Amino acid sequence: MSDNGCGFPAPGLHSFLFKPIFTVGGFEFNKVMLLALLTTLVVVTFFYVAFGKAKMVPGKLQMIGEAGYDFVRRGIVYETLGKKEGEKYVPLMVSLFFFIWIMNIWSVIPLSQFPVSSVIAYPAVLALLVYVIWVSLTFKRHGFVGGWKNVTGYDNSLGPIKWLVSFIEFFSNLLVRPFTHAVRLFANMFAGHLMLVMFTVASWYLLNSYMIPAAGVSFVMTMVMILFELFVQAVQAYVFVLLACSYIQGALAEHH
Fold first, then answer.
1. How do the domains of the chain map onto residue ranges?
2. For the chain, what is the mean pLDDT?
């Protein structure tokens, strides 16, 4: 870590860079990739074990799995898309929710201590997946002309300003939407990890500088930030999936 000439190893962008674990033909496999892979294994393994041999009277693991699945299905998908339209999208949204949540929660797990979502590539790929589904559904449901009307909000009843509204809607929906969808998740995880690193390093630095009371305060703040991050990690997974459902709902809705 850089000490900026004052002895304090301040966190920065270097806190998000990792040396390759191994390199094969120019491809570098690092810690973030390993955590993303582990996230996939954790989610798939959990649901396979929970529902692989589902019982009428569920065990503890199946009950936890059912509670998580039902939370996303009823609390997000049904509330946004309705039961009839939303049922087919439940598996996708459940997968997105738990994949994002586990990616986030690595930041407070000992040894890993890094949220995968704080690297913009991962939220960007997930946002792109939602974007492709949204655009595809829009034109599939409404046709070519109807799809463009749905995307741009074109409406003759708006009179002279219809072209201005259409341009703003086009820019907002097709260009800004996927960017903000990805950045909302990335920025929260990036900032949260930076704050955790700041207080953790400050505790160590102050303790080694024999400023015990200050080190104690910093350590307490580290614990507070960990609890706060646990809340934010779940909220960000919820918000990402909620927005994904909202976009799909917009694609399926009739244009007026």
1. 13-252
2. 88
